[in-house]
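Sharing a chain and its predicted structure for anyone who wants a worked example. Both blocks are below, sequence first, tokens second.
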Amino acid sequence: MRVHRANTQLVWFKRDLRVADNAVLARAAEQGPVLPLFVAEPELWQQPDVSGRQWAFVAECLHTLREELAALGQPLVVRTGDAVDVLSSLCDANAISRIWSHEETGNGWTYARDRRVAAWAKSRAIQWVELSQSGVIRRLRNRDGWAKTWDSSMATPLAEAPSALRPLENVDAGEIPSVHALEMEPDACPQRQEGGRPSGLECLRSFFTTRGAPYRRAMSSPAAGADHCSRISPHLAWGTLSMREVAQATWSKQNELKAQGTGHAWKGSLSSFEGRLHWRDHFIQKLEDEPSLEFRNLHRAYDGLRPREPDQARLVAWMHGETGLPFVDACMRALRNTGWMNFRMRAMLMAFASYHLWLDWRKPGEHLARMFTDYEPGIHWSQAQMQSGTTGINTVRIYNPVKQGYDQDPGGRFIRRWVPQLAKVPDPFVHEPWNWDGASQILDRSYPRPIIDHLKAAKDARERVWAVRSSPDFRREAQSIQHKHGSRKSGIVMRGRGRKREAASAQLSLPLSMADRDQ
């Protein structure tokens, strides 16, 4: 039986597209009938860091969320428009006095939108209740004890889903808009991951049962990582899975293997995976604490180091996988077709753009953000600056793009898959086709010559970056950044010529298998 909307609670779904372990939904349902809402905001989806592949993933998540909520009695309501306008209209029509949502650490646009919503709600005397759904802490004073607080938060019981939702009268569910309806650019991503909680649960299940055993040794390879990394990152980004349920599932798997006295192959992999769950929120916390890091250098000594307006020819070649460096191009082409890339290669792509091509991190950062189905602003912009050397507190890593190819794709199979123009190049030369006697058959015909001398470019970049770090005021500002954003296990990275100092901890710079400056 449908009921009148007295005391209706509006639940605004944002990056929490699930019913399970959704504290906002559970709490709101205790107070009265629930109007579950998602707002498709055209202005948001026309920002330079979002893309059609991401909306396609979100739309699939919304379809499954609508089905889950309908099974409880009240389907998801979807509206397209400005959030303030939509919320105002629904609150007026349904006499709503309380809005519920999870805290969001999004991009600069969503931050500004939330400020507008807060001002509107205050002017209307409408209570807006925001709850945390992760280990990120709003209005954090400093990082002391952050890791222990994260562990405690993840160990709390999962929120139980409501047993039923009372259906609302005369509330149209609305259409889930298409990419075209949001006036977005076409974005073909033929091998994109499927959205929706069932797909997320299947990723988690298969990772913990079979795929995850070689995770630690496979995660650096773009080919092996595609199979043996968890692949749950887009589901965490859009909340079809909660961080809490993933953390508890990880601990459960570890305890299960310990009780059985088996699973030695799993031990290191699960330990690494657990560390990366901490790592994820650690970096999102940075953006929560300092939203401006999406737009300006964290360490201001780097202002003006690179031209703000990029060399368009270099930028376009990098974006299209046409730099003439086979492993770089293979990674970029794979990303464009799948929407995913393992962490090490994400770091290499960003570092190559920043150091070898000497591009300011903002435009390359926007392109990668659009390519990642799992785009998470807090992680992404922190990493864009880390891999560009502008944080002031992290190890400067200038990846050797040829060496990375030899290390991670020794037989060239990954390169040949994504750069088929190199299919006929003999194995010994597939990473450096310009050294092959038959190079003239291909280079500057079906595949370009390198647009830069990668060794000289790396040397020049290193000189420029270390020149900034040697300035007298550099360390003072770096100490301030470290106090605000750094892991409490780390120190300041100040390794320079003629002397060595220890690198930052794993949570700050995520050291990989090699920590030399030219990886």
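Comments welcome. Residues 55 and 179 are 7 Å apart (CA to CA).
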